[in-house]
Recover the amino acids of this structure.
């Protein structure tokens, strides 16, 4: 492991599990900490995602505790979707990868997973989505500014020692487990290191490993349809998101009349009202394992296309820079961004602005 002064140098996961007598630490990511083999799930149906235009945002109250016993801010694991909605209000983002699974975000860091309408997992920071996606989310100060506590003894960002976590192991529940995420930091010109609490995963004791989703069937379906619509679009017409046959997997609340729809691991669509205004295509929206087998393709352009080929396809009137090429069509302006992959500049991401 390489260390850098004054920066996060590693991630430890400190586990408080049901029935545990000791709290263990491991120098690896939370992604490897689940005990049960993953299930691969492939979405294959249309999903409606209700999100009201006037979100309900009640006060969260004074309970800042994250606990295997009392749950997240007073809402225990096993709470219903309706009970969470009454206390926490309308989520800022809803993602529904399967018929019986719903994942919601409050602000940019609080992620709740429901199975058959019951809360089975609450996480601080997502292991499924990247900041590239969450940067499009509206802030929710109730959650984004909230400093949480663990059993009123340890707080978010506080330094932690092994004996403190050992004491907490006596406060486990028979139905839930708490995993604390920690960051190791070197300070004072690397003279000493500290371990600080940075996140948590609170989950049902009977919950299987977070499943691995297979999006290969849905990949590029939306881009193919949008490409066809843009080619056939009449002058002064717009693309109404309600007319798109492909259904989204997730969508945000409305912010400044804008809403974002996630259709697959690399395709995000921005709308103003119901009109498509921008199409963002990038492999950075979700964790790498969900996009590496589903490279994007839009018409003649595709992920990993050599830079010189992309510039040629863009046409003689295209504007080319070192890291992107910009070109215009009848109804949109597009930019193809390049990255060095295997020491060769290739198409990496794309953005289209629709007139």
């Amino acid at each position: 492991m390489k260390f850098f002064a004054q920066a996060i140098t590693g991630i430890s996961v400190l586990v408080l599990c049901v029935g545990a007598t000791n709290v263990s630490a491991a120098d690896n990511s939370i992604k490897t900490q689940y005990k049960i083999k993953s299930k691969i799930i492939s979405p294959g149906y249309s999903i409606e995602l209700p999100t009201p235009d006037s979100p309900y945002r009640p006060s969260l109250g004074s309970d800042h505790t994250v606990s295997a016993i009392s749950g997240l801010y007073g809402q225990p694991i096993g709470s219903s979707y309706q009970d969470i909605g009454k206390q926490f209000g309308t989520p800022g983002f809803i993602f529904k990868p399967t018929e019986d699974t719903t994942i919601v975000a409050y602000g940019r860091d609080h992620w709740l997973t429901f199975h058959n309408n019951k809360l089975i997992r609450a996480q601080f920071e997502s292991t499924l989505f990247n900041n590239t996606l969450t940067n499009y989310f509206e802030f929710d100060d109730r959650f984004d500014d909230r400093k949480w506590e663990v059993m009123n003894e340890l707080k978010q960002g506080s330094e932690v020692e092994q004996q403190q976590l050992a004491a907490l192991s006596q406060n486990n529940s028979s139905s839930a487990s708490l995993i604390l995420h920690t960051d190791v930091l070197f300070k004072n010109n690397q003279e000493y290191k500290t371990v600080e609490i940075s996140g948590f995963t609170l989950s049902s004791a009977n919950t299987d490993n977070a499943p691995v989703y297979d999006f290969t069937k849905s990949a590029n379906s939306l881009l193919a349809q949008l490409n066809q619509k843009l080619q056939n679009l009449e002058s002064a017409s717009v693309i109404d998101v309600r007319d798109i046959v492909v259904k989204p997997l997730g969508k945000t609340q409305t912010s400044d009349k804008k809403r974002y729809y996630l259709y697959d691991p690399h395709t995000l669509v921005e709308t103003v009202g119901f009109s498509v205004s921008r199409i963002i295509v990038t492999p950075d929206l979700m964790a790498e394992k969900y996009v590496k087998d589903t490279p994007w393709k839009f018409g003649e352009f595709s992920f990993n296309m050599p830079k010189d080929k992309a510039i040629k396809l863009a046409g003689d009137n295209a504007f080319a820079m070192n890291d992107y090429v910009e070109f215009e069509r009848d109804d949109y302006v597009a930019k193809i961004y390049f990255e060095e992959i295997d020491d060769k500049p290739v198409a990496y991401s794309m953005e289209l602005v629709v007139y």
Q: What stands out?
A: The first strand starts at residue 8 and ends at 16. Residues 221-354 form a domain with the Pathogenesis-related Protein p14a fold (CATH 3.40.33.10). The two ends are 49 Å apart (CA to CA). Residues 1-38 have pLDDT under 50 and may be disordered.
